[in-house]
Design a protein that fits this description.
The protein is an alpha/beta fold. It folds into two domains: 8-56 and 332-435, Alpha-Beta Complex (Aspartate Aminotransferase, domain 1), CATH 3.90.1150; 60-326, Type I PLP-dependent aspartate aminotransferase-like (Major domain) (Aspartate Aminotransferase, domain 2, 3-Layer(aba) Sandwich). The chain has 15 helices and 15 strands. The protein has helices at residues 8-18, 28-42, 60-71, 85-98, 113-125, 143-152, 168-177, 200-213, 275-279, 286-289, 294-306, 312-326, 332-352, 382-390, 422-435, and strands at 47-48, 108-111, 134-139, 155-160, 182-188, 216-221, 251-256, 269-273, 356-357, 361-362, 365-366, 372-376, 394-395, 397-398, 410-413. Strands 2-8-7-6-5-3-4 form a seven-stranded mixed sheet, sandwiched between helices. The protein has a four-stranded antiparallel sheet with strand order 9-12-15-14, with helices on one face. It has a two-stranded parallel sheet with strand order 1-13. Helix 4 packs parallel to helix 12 (312-326), helix 5 packs across helix 6 (143-152) and helix 13 packs parallel to helix 15 (422-435). The chain is globular, with a radius of gyration of 22 Å.
């Protein structure tokens, strides 16, 4: 019997008690619950890499603005469902300053996190056109977005982009879009879970395909600016956040306060529509929303029905953060570089102990260090590796639940790992290598 850092009998018992048929196919929240049970039973602290939760303090500018808003009495007042003017104006400025695109303040709609933004978009777009009933996921991707589709009974198709980088992406997209049933496609950039970033060539291909087949691109920018290979922190100066919006007007951007702005707890995101998409009419919307106009359908149909707007005071917080970023008095990129620094150390510890990176390049460029990285170990499937990790006090999630075809891999998130845990991680990885 190999000696492992965590009591093997307790781990085995907790796995059995969990009732999970497959650890490798368990959801993120199920893995979280299992790890917590093992920690409680053993008294041992895990190196927890399963949850993509921000690990930095909330932006002080936002906290102070929110406190002031509450003191001014906004908690007693319903916010305008379209969002407060200050937030809408600053988000439009932010898009110009940091993405180099022109959008109207009217087309910036706050939601209860990007999670609700996605749900609102998915729910509405499946009603756009009776002939188009399917979303295309460029995977790997955020598992909950597919869960949202399943809850809605919405159809989707998916492919793993691993083997279709660069010009190969065009033919792959053509094979799906040419069928005529796709109303929208979605991806995240930087990507959760792989941390790949689409190149300008790839974004141009996506934009050209969206124009050719009249599909809407949903670009999830939850990790805005966190491709640390280029510094986009200076307003109105290149380089800018890479985006498909440079190549098509058929876009909806999902921008979150959670990661890049370290303001996760108040659940605030913003849907940013191109003027073309927001003001476009689709006759098939009318039976469901009482209007053919997409922007009005999403705001006064979907968002109204889901939550009737989002936190009043949190909107003032986000508006204040964006105003400071737009004016160059708050460097949001500098604040989140801690993730990249931790990732560099952690990746080296894994590589030094026989692990391999699964997604490692954007075409010919090594990936940035950032919020996530992906790992595998020779001769073990991702499912086997994840279960083995439990005996070594390490947690992650399987790439299998993200739409990835790389079934040997796991996603590791750096955010909740404290630097004082690095020696523990190193010891546990060395023990893992010794036992394998």
């Amino acid at each position: 019997m190999k000696v492992t850092p965590i009591n093997s009998e307790i781990v085995s018992q907790k796995i059995k008690e969990s009732g999970l048929k497959s650890i490798g196919k368990a959801s993120i929240r199920e893995i979280k619950r299992l790890i917590s049970e093992i920690e409680k039973a053993t008294g041992e602290k895990f190196v927890r890499m399963e949850m993509g939760i921000p690990g930095l303090p909330a932006a002080r500018i936002g906290v102070e603005a929110q406190i002031q808003a509450l003191q001014n009495g906004v908690a007693a007042i319903y916010p305008d469902i379209e969002g407060i003017p200050e937030l809408k104006t600053e988000m439009a400025r932010f898009c110009k300053n940091f993405i180099d695109i022109e959008v109207s303040a009217q087309c910036c709609i706050p939601t209860v996190g990007s999670m609700q933004g996605g749900m609102s978009v998915f729910l509405t777009l499946q009603r756009l056109n009776k002939q188009k009933d399917t979303t295309l996921f460029i995977d790997p991707g955020f598992p909950v977005q597919k869960q949202q589709h399943r809850i809605l009974g919405a159809k989707y198709e998916t492919f793993d982009v691993y083997n279709f980088r660069g010009e190969k992406l065009r033919e792959k997209l053509e094979s799906y879009l040419s069928k005529g049933n796709i109303h929208s496609l979605i991806y995240s950039n930087p990507n959760n879970p792989s941390w790949i970033c689409f190149t300008e060539k790839e974004l141009q291909i996506i934009g050209e395909m969206a124009n050719k087949y009249d599909v809407i691109v949903i670009e999830d920018l939850a990790y805005f600016g966190m491709d640390f290979r280029k510094n986009i922190s200076a307003p109105a100066q290149p380089p800018y956040q890479a985006t498909v919006a440079k190549y098509t007007d058929n876009f909806i951007l999902l921008i979150s306060s959670s990661k890049a702005f370290s303001y996760a707890g108040e659940r605030l995101g913003v849907m940013v529509f191109s003027d073309k998409v927001f003001h476009r009419n689709y006759s098939d919307l009318e039976p469901y929303f009482g209007t053919a106009n997409l922007g009005r359908a999403i705001v006064y149909g979907t968002v109204y029905a889901l939550s009737s707007g989002t936190s009043h005071s949190a909107q003032y917080a986000m508006a204040a953060i964006l105003k400071a970023v737009n004016e160059g008095t708050y460097n949001f990129i500098e604040e989140v570089k801690d993730y990249a620094e931790k990732a560099a150390v952690m990746k080296k510890l894994f590589l030094d102990n026989g692990f391999q990176l699964v997604y490692d390049k954007d075409e010919d460029q090594p990936l940035s260090d950032g919020f996530y990285f992906t790992i595998a170990y020779p001769n073990l499937s991702g499912e086997e590796l994840l279960e083995e990790f439990l005996y070594y006090g390490i947690s992650a999630i399987s790439l299998a639940i993200t739409g990835s075809e790389r079934l040997e891999g796991l996603r590791a998130c750096v955010s909740l790992v404290n630097r004082n845990q690095f020696p523990d991680l190193e010891y546990r990885l060395k023990k893992f290598k010794e036992n394998h």
